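User: quick one, sequence for these tokens?
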């Protein structure tokens, strides 16, 4: 998949905002698809030595870890194929991994609470807000003259960290509450897939 990106023209600095936003959005979408696909395998047979809540949290954590790994493996070659500078590749990697775990955990937690469709909507919402915060940061700060990541601590505190922390809180809360929601079995019925 990344090899095909070599056919995309190398972006100039003015085009980088569009390139990075589309790229990050695609990475988040891949992460959500992987989480959604893997979530159907969550079941009571995972981590049987733990209690019911522990099994759910451990299974969700394993699923999210697999998702984050897939996103990392896609982010690295695709960023290089788009010819981003190393610092911009690093920003894309950090952003994609951070969003993948928060959106994935939210998807699973809400799925346990309200079903598959609600889980997907919640995961997409977290992903969109997080991508928007990176877009807002890059819009405000811009890029280095070579197209690299221009680090601005005050802009990170203003545009990224509040949304990042909110996404983490939402992810942890929904996953914890979903894991404790014992009236719904861990595995999904065919109607929820």
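Assistant:
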């Amino acid at each position: 998949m990344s090899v095909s990106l070599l056919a995309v023209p190398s972006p100039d600095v003015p085009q980088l905002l569009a390139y990075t936003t589309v790229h990050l959005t695609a990475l988040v979408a891949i992460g959500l698809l992987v989480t959604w696909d893997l979530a159907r395998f969550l079941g009571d047979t995972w981590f049987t030595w733990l209690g019911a809540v522990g099994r759910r949290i451990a299974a969700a954590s394993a699923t999210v870890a697999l998702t984050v790994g897939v996103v990392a493996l896609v982010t690295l070659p695709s960023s290089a194929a788009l010819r981003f500078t190393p610092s911009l590749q690093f920003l894309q990697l950090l952003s994609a991994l951070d969003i993948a775990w928060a959106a994935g955990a939210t998807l699973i937690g809400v799925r346990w609470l309200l079903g598959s469709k609600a889980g997907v909507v919640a995961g997409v919402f977290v992903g969109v807000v997080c991508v928007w915060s990176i877009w807002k940061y890059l819009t405000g700060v811009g890029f280095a003259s070579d197209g690299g990541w221009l680090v601005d601590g005050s802009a990170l505190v203003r545009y990224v960290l509040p949304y990042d922390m909110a996404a983490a809180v939402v992810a942890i809360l929904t996953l914890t509450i979903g894991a404790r929601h014992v009236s719904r079995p861990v595995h999904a019925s065919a109607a929820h897939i």
